[in-house]
Specification:
Helices cover 25% and strands 29% of the residues. By secondary structure, the protein is α+β, with helices and mostly antiparallel strands. The radius of gyration is 16 Å and the shape is globular. The chain binds nickel (II) ion. Nickel (II) ion binds next to helix 2.
């Protein structure tokens, strides 16, 4: 499984709805859940692995909190997600496996309500905040062909142009 890099057309396309949760799709999702932490990511959208379909995974690994307490990791799959509502605003640094080496502060809503289908085909609604809200919005953008760098002010984008162009057609197998 190869992670597509900036400049790859699949990253700029609006992905298509998932019509059916097939065994094949489940296998792909399983691979993405494995791949995501291997590549040091916390989210991975289907277009990033060359599949122009509307789903993404979020994988949070086991960790220790500030007091050294063990916090169990988890993974989630969002199929045909729709952000129904959002509120507040916060700034957070973002990076993207498809835009390696570039980290920038992006402003986005703080709390979101998302409707999505899970791996069992159930249509659910969840409310998320903090890091999860951030990752979900970032990944959901991938489904619309939007990369986080396009959310930066024009001047900042111009400053990044050279580095972004250098990424074009660069292939990376994490
Ligand atoms: Ni990304």
């Amino acid at each position: 499984m190869e992670i597509r890099i900036y400049g790859d057309e699949v990253l700029n396309k609006r992905a298509e709805e998932v019509a059916e949760i097939t065994t094949e799709l489940k296998e792909l999702i399983g691979e993405m859940i494995k791949k995501c932490p291997e590549a040091n990511g916390i989210g991975l959208a289907a277009p990033q692995v060359g599949v122009s379909k509307r789903f993404f995974v979020v994988v949070v690994q086991d960790r220790e909190d500030d007091d050294g307490k063990f916090v169990k990791g988890f993974s989630m799959v969002f199929i045909n997600p729709v952000i129904k509502a959002s509120s507040g605003s916060c700034k957070m640094e973002e990076g993207c496996l498809s835009v390696p080496g570039i980290w920038e502060i992006i402003e986005r809503p703080e709390v979101i309500e998302v409707e999505f289908t899970d791996i069992e085909g159930r249509r659910l609604t969840g409310t998320y905040e903090g890091l999860l809200a951030r990752v979900i919005q970032h990944e959901n953008d991938h489904l619309d062909g939007i990369l986080f760098v396009s959310k930066l002010p024009k001047l900042k984008q111009d400053l990044l142009k050279k580095r972004l162009n250098a990424l074009k057609n660069k292939k990376r197998d994490y």
